[in-house]
């Protein structure tokens, strides 16, 4: 047996929130363009929902898990799966899996999924108070997005709630672009190039 003391070498790994937030920024930008009436249909939202909203965020989820970051891993994983689920729902609605599924869909079922994600987003918003202010703002906007999506799916003030969802989604995109840029440029330059705001310190000293 070798009794020689061995020194553990820590391998530096990059912050996965850069690619995760970029994926969120792209998919919400494209999706909000449809909600706000700037574009039509969902066909060309699908690739971005699958690859940027889904796969990019799931990649960030796995990498955050390696950092032992339960909050980040859960957030990216849950929202990555959300976009894959939404993409599948659009495919079913379009008849890609046959008319039987398309004819049998009930938008209220999607509404219940949105309500579930609203509950998730609310307690993640509480957790985001102890990350940084840009991420906290993103989660508050996600709360409003799911409020709008839920109300729209249940036919409650559909025009107003659809607009709330569209505006919230567009703002999510803008703040996610900023957060992604900060995650790339701040460590790249070795200084605070883009400030993201300190945690609120309400629950952690």
UniProtKB/TrEMBL annotation:
InterPro entries per UniProt: Gpr1/Fun34/SatP-like, SatP
Gene Ontology, cellular component aspect: membrane
Pfam families in alphabetical order: Gpr1_Fun34_YaaH (PF01184)
Subcellular location field: Membrane
TM regions (residue ranges): 12-32, 44-62, 74-92, 112-128, 135-158, 170-189
Keywords of the record: Membrane, Transmembrane, Transmembrane helix
Residue ranges of coiled coil: none
Membrane association type: Multi-pass membrane protein
The organism's place on the tree of life at top rank: Bacteria
Predominant localisation class: membrane
Family indicated by similarity: Belongs to the acetate uptake transporter (AceTr) (TC 2.A.96) family.
Protein name stated in the entry: Membrane protein
Organism lineage string: Bacteria, Bacillati, Bacillota, Bacilli, Bacillales
